Amino acid sequence: IAKMEEKEQTPLQEALTQLIRQLQRKDPNAFFAFPVTDFIAPGYSLIIKRPMDFSTMKEKVKKEYYQSLEELKVDFKIMCENAMIYNKPETIYYKAAKKLLHSGMKILSPERLQSLKQSIE
Ligand SMILES: CC(=O)c1cc(-c2ccccn2)c2ncccn12
Hints:
By secondary structure, this protein is an all-alpha fold. It contains six helices and no strands. It has helices at 11-24, 44-47, 54-62, 69-86, 92-107, 110-120. Helix 1 runs antiparallel to helix 3 and helix 4 (69-86) packs antiparallel against helix 5. The N and C termini lie far apart (38 Å). 20% of the residues are buried. The mean pLDDT is 97. The structure holds 1-(8-pyridin-2-ylpyrrolo[1,2-a]pyrimidin-6-yl)ethanone. 1-(8-pyridin-2-ylpyrrolo[1,2-a]pyrimidin-6-yl)ethanone (OF8) binds at residues 31-32, 36, 40-41, 83, 86-87, 93.
């Protein structure tokens, strides 16, 4: 049976994969692991124009959609902000998003991205 060929990751893809791993550790309940469905969140697709989740980010890395580390930071912020738009402040999802955003901004700080960028060049 043909073995699925593993494609080598570019240095950028490797750095992006590492960052997503660090970010996902801050989502222990995996609330952000997969796209939010209208089934679990009624009306979600009508309210949220730019859905985002970690599995979609990983897909974008694989397909080389990200041309820079900053583009991942944009998607990460959208993902957290979506949860703070759709969910009411008293919900576990809103609170998890706020906490995730805060810890994610440290992992994706300008200084950290800058030094990562230098190691990729
Ligand atoms: C991220 C988010 O908004 C979210 C994740 C979930 C979620 C994610 C995994 C398992 C269960 N629920 C959710 N459920 C209802 C309303 C909103 N959400």
